[in-house]
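Hey, I'm writing a tutorial for new members on how sequence and structure tokens pair up, and I'd like a real worked example in the thread rather than a made-up one. If someone can provide the structure for the chain below, I'll link this post from the tutorial.
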Amino acid sequence: MQKGKDEFLNRVTVQRSVLQLVNKEKDLKFPLVGLSSKAIERWQIENKIPTTSTLLEFIYLISSKLFFLANKSQEQINPEYIELSKSVAHLVAQLRTKLQNQQTTIVSK
């Protein structure tokens, strides 16, 4: 049971990290409140973010991978799950770097 709890806490930690990173952006007036598709969609609309935004792309990609991990967490941890976890961690690191370097804001690709 402890393993499943740790995996859940890690996903929650990743979600919080993404929300904190995105919400530090000065150009955004409406905060990202979650990583559900509806929360992301509302955030996009309220901030008038174009669908071609690399920031939006990163958020949706991280969200979809976290959703997949959440669904797989009930199963035995396998190499696919571990690789996907590493992929999410890498995406969050990329997001952090891009936001810090101001390469990814609301600008379109």
